[in-house]
Automatic annotation (TrEMBL):
Alpha/beta hydrolase fold-3 domain residues: 107-260, 314-373
Xref: Gene3D superfamilies: alpha/beta hydrolase
Family label: Belongs to the 'GDXG' lipolytic enzyme family.
Protein name, UniProt field: Arylacetamide deacetylase-like 2 isoform X2
Gene encoding the protein: LOC101826725
Active site: S189
InterPro entries: AB_hydrolase_3, AB_hydrolase_fold, Arylacetamide_deacetylase, GDXG_lipolytic_enzyme, Lipase_GDXG_put_SER_AS
């Protein structure tokens, strides 16, 4: 009892402290963002504490928090919502009820969560996908994929590829009344990483080339090569997503190895002989002037890790390091970046590299945006920013699909 009181007291103190942590000036609804930020910081602190005490793993607390948002498949007046599976992989389908005499477009939406958290069941994704189905009169497919650290790379990627290929079968498209020439794949954050990778792999596969009309990436993470880009430095402490938390969680996709996490945090994780890869993520070449200005480019330090993780050099982990000739093959692309986001520069560099390669790109940059805003588009924390981002993304789909 006394322990609980102490615990509660401590949390209140921390909350009072973190609620006054500085946030960028142009942020809309600053108090809501302060609350979200404080809750994240406290959860992160608790997670570290519990992990050190051996009570639970760092990611478990976040897993619990996100699971609270899970929903059942509930149909509404316009959309039939079904949980089913594609060859054993769980998917939620959003099927418009209205009779249509023409084939419909389709969107495959892959959720985010640093490769170890999240589900299509979460209210934020359920409502995003429902809205997409409604506004586009589209069939929406939302897969769940195997999560780290129980399932390491490439499990998540393999599941996503499997679902996409399953859906692209003629018989399946026919069954759902989908127009094969109007299919888009989309995802946010680590879902964006998976989308970028799946799209690259499918374009390289003669059997699937050009089967996806477009890809949409919302504040995607696109590389694990350089974790000291200007945005990683500027937003190291958030709002919402801190550098440490992002790295601690997403690192689990490669291995449960504290040395690896520490090396990535120091940005000294890349193996000897990988210098050529840095050319493709070199922010001092690819970022617009205004983002480079106050920063000095530091050459990476190689070969500090004793265990070898070849995955770190794969474009299947960091789609941003794909070669120019691979990028040239990519379809119509939408990228949304947020100013106040450690992953901002990943998105900005991809925009530059894709445009240099001749890929048609629509880029929306949200000047007052924070990472994960779409996840705050529903109760209990509704951010107007989340709705604005959803609206930009869906408007692009309406025009492009
Ligand atoms: C159903 O569609 C109509 C017309 O687009 C819309 O006004 C209504 O809000 C939709 N219902 C739901 C539950 O989304
Ligand atoms: C990155 O770009 C800068 C400026 O163009 C250059 O000086 C540096 O050598 C590059 N580093 C790598 C690893 O490519
Ligand atoms: C890695 O290897 C070096 C040299 O062999 C050694 O000094 C260092 O302690 C090792 N680090 C770890 C974390 O094992």
């Amino acid at each position: 009892m006394r322990c609980k009181t102490l615990f509660l007291g401590l949390s209140c103190l921390l909350f009072a402290y973190y609620i006054y942590a500085p946030i960028p000036e142009n942020i809309e609804e600053p108090w809501k963002v302060r609350i979200i930020n404080a809750v994240m910081k406290i959860s992160s602190l608790m997670a570290t504490l519990f992990e050190n005490m051996g009570i639970m793993k760092f990611e478990d607390i976040f897993f619990g928090l996100m699971n609270l948002q899970n929903t059942k498949p509930v149909s509404d007046e316009n959309i039939t919502v079904i949980d089913t599976d594609f060859g054993g992989i769980p998917v939620r389908l959003f099927l418009p009820k209205k009779k249509s005499d023409r084939l419909r477009p389709a969107v495959i939406n892959i959720h985010g969560g640093a490769f170890c958290l999240g589900s299509y069941k979460m209210l934020c994704y359920d409502s995003l996908n429902r809205l997409t189905a409604n506004r586009l009169d589209a069939v929406v497919i939302a897969p769940d994929y195997r999560l780290a650290p129980q399932y390491l790379f490439p499990a998540a990627l393999e599941d996503c590829i499997f679902v996409v290929k399953f859906f692209l079968q003629e018989t399946v498209l026919e069954k759902y009344g989908v127009d094969p020439s109007r299919i888009c794949i989309s995802g946010d954050s680590s879902g964006g990483t998976l989308v970028a990778t799946v799209t690259q792999l499918l374009q390289d596969d003669p059997e699937y080339k050009n089967k996806l009309k477009a890809q949409a990436l919302l504040y995607p993470g696109l590389q694990a090569i350089d974790t000291m880009t200007p945005s990683y430095q500027e937003y190291e402490h958030g709002p919402f997503l801190s550098r440490k938390m992002a790295i601690k969680l997403s690192c689990l996709y490669i291995a449960e190895d504290e040395e690896l996490t520490k090396a990535i945090l120091r940005n000294e994780h890349m193996p000897e002989g990988s210098r050529h890869l840095f050319k493709r993520v070199n922010w001092s070449d690819f970022l617009p002037e205004k983002y480079r200005m106050i920063h000095v480019y530091k050459e990476p330090i190689f070969g500090k890790l004793n265990t070898s993780y070849p995955e770190l050099t794969y474009s299947k982990v960091s789609p941003l390091i794909a070669s120019d000739s691979q990028l040239q093959r990519l379809p119509l692309t939408y990228i949304l970046t947020c100013e106040h986001d450690i992953l901002r520069d990943d998105g900005l560099i991809y925009v530059t590299r894709l445009r240099n390669a001749g890929v048609p790109v629509t880029h929306d940059h949200v000047e007052d945006g924070i990472h994960g805003a779409v996840s705050f588009a529903t109760a209990p924390v509704y951010l107007n920013l989340g709705s604005r981002i959803k609206d930009k993304y869906i408007s692009w789909l309406e025009e492009s699909l």
